[in-house]
Write a structure and sequence with these properties.
- With about 150 residues, the protein is an alpha/beta fold.
- Helix content is about 30%, strand content about 30%.
- It is built from 4 helices and 8 strands; from the N terminus they run βαββββαβαββα.
- Strands 1, 2, 5, 6, 7 and 8 form a 6-stranded mixed beta sheet that branches. The protein has a two-stranded antiparallel sheet with strand order 3-4.
- It is elongated.
- The two termini are about 30 Å apart.
- The mean pLDDT is about 90.
Length: about 150
């Protein structure tokens, strides 16, 4: 490959929904209760629809989303608008959780699963000073973020 990836950090995965959705449809009290809810997920890859809840043989719950999209940002917006429950990385939902637009769902049953965050850039014999400097800046800036801890 002509690409190089540098791990910058990890961000926790958790289930979230809007207070309006939970008010209208009820707060699930157990993992089995998710069967009665609108689940929002990814159309591909299928591995993104494994939620950090005790479930199948691999230790995570495989879900079949009622609505599947290709963008985490789209899932975040759908959840904020009260369409259903989704599982996203903390870096995508931090501001919404802080404002109360999204709230955690099934926190006590959620496994401690983190998603890696990489900087990906073209590999060549000598990475330019600008690219190296920018990736170093990103690594330092991300380590200062609350959701990275």
């Amino acid at each position: 490959s002509t690409l190089h990836a540098r791990l910058l950090g990890r961000s926790r995965l958790q289930l979230v929904a809007s207070p309006a959705y939970l008010h209208a449809h009820g707060q699930p009290g157990a993992v089995a209760d998710l069967a009665g809810h609108a689940l929002l997920g990814f159309n591909e890859p299928e591995s993104l629809n494994r939620w950090p809840l005790v479930g199948d043989d691999d230790g995570q719950l495989r879900v079949r989303p009622a609505i599947a999209v290709s963008s985490g940002e789209t899932l975040r917006r759908l959840a904020v608008e009260g369409v259903g429950i989704t599982c996203l990385s903390d870096f995508l939902t931090e501001a919404d959780r802080a404002s109360g637009a999204l709230v955690p769902v099934l926190s006590a049953q959620t496994l401690d699963v983190h998603q890696p965050i990489h900087a990906v850039y073209y590999r060549n014999t000598a990475v330019s000073a600008r690219v190296r400097s920018f990736v170093d800046f990103l690594a330092d800036a991300l380590q200062a973020m609350a959701w990275m801890r």
